[in-house]
């Protein structure tokens, strides 16, 4: 398995897609029921293969990721060749940028000495999707890039 198995909730959400997947494997509903009962290891493999297919499809479309923690904001823009990072670190003890107050403080104090801004660019490796999956496992979420674009615009001024 290249990524991670989908959760029960994700499988439920993708119920029709899973049925279609089984159909491409020439597995009927009755055969799937029998497979689960008599050869659970084969059924598990099918769940893993389907999970990897879904992850691969999702990750291929990712253009932006965000990872926000109380003291740090990491914004990623992923192109075909590069992963660009805008990182913002807050060094003020009483500020938590995951709160509305903390985020507003950050917006108003970007040029404060307690705020460090970093940018970086890294070439995409041979396994782009695996790199993105690792970031997601570490807490990054897929976004449309509004925050990245906002800070990119601020940094270009």
Automatic annotation (TrEMBL):
Pfam families: DUF6495 (PF20105). The lineage of its organism: Bacteria, Pseudomonadati, Bacteroidota, Flavobacteriia, Flavobacteriales. This is DUF6495 family protein. InterPro entries: DUF6495 (IPR045470).
């Amino acid at each position: 398995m290249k990524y991670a198995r989908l959760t029960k909730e994700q499988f439920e959400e993708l119920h029709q897609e899973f049925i279609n997947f089984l159909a491409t494997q020439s597995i009927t509903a009755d055969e799937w029921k029998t497979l689960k009962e008599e050869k659970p290891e084969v059924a598990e493999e099918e769940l893993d293969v389907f999970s990897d297919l879904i992850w691969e499809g999702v990750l291929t479309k990712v253009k932006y990721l965000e990872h926000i923690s109380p003291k740090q904001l990491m914004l990623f823009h992923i192109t075909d060749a590069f992963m660009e990072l805008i990182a913002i670190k807050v060094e003020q003890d009483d500020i938590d940028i995951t709160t509305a107050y903390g985020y507003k403080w950050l917006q108003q104090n970007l040029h404060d000495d307690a705020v460090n801004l970093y940018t970086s660019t890294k070439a995409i490796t041979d396994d782009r999707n695996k790199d993105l999956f690792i970031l997601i496992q570490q807490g990054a979420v897929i976004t449309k890039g509004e925050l990245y674009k906002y800070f990119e615009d601020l940094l270009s001024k």
